[in-house]
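tool_call predict_complex ligand=zinc ion
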Amino acid sequence: MSATETATLPDFAPIPREALGPALNEQGYYVGRVERNLYYVTDGTYMCAFLTTSDGVVVLDAPPTLGNNIQRAIDEIAAANGVSNKVTHLIYSHHHSDHVGAASLFDKNAARIGHEETRTLLLRDNDPARPPNEETFQDQANLVIGGEHINLAFHGPNHSPDNILIHLPDHDTMMLVDICNPGWVPIYRSNLSEDIPGYLEAPANALAYEWTHFIGGHMGRLGKRDDLALHQQYMADISESSRTAIDTVDPTPYFVKYGENFWAALKGYLDECAATTAAPVIEKYTGVLAAADVFTEDVSFEVMQSIRLDLGYGAQVHP
Ligand SMILES: [Zn+2]
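tool_result ok
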């Protein structure tokens, strides 16, 4: 892209500094302690975690953008603490390639653990980069590895059909990926989520547990309970604003203008609903959540569709 073209690109509001994480090292990652022997690794946009135990290292997700930097981070921490750097367990948050697409880098004999639907979807996808988890669970799995507790729970589909809660009670930590990006709004359709009612409900499920530190799978810094609560409020504001838009936006001008081209009329009407939904939310969250002015209209569109289609709001039966 030429310099002239760059100059014509739209401007967006500045990013609040607290949305950003620590500086990356020369290899392009940062590894930091969450609590005790639990660490997080980030490249600024993706985040995963690992736990060093007396039985070996447990890796929680393996994003391909971090790739071999995950083992580098483990080596760095293991050397500093004089513990084993051997990865013996991998836990998958969900089947998506952008969070577990580096899973094949680790020992093929390491135990791979995840939801039963994650296994089903990985078998379907048949991607050599993502070996299907051999160990599965349905509703809940309470693991003890090297004396450390890791509790896995499935509360139903949300972002994906298989996305789970990973609670580490001994480390005061909750890992829930692709729901809340601490400091940032979700991208596109609520972080490209398949089940919007499940996505909207997920923060409450996580907040029902006791924890202090939050690993959301994205961006450069750890989250706190306040980050999840703020995200929850942002989504609630979009839901409420959607209802107002459905109640108030008048489709008539679009149908008058486009006549038999029903799709043109529908697009005009629904796009106006999304813009109307987003406007007050963008105003409220600019300077609070990074990129509120970039993605709120996209997120609003899908939430508004879910309120119409999943909840039946505004639906009228022909008399
Ligand atoms: Zn995902």
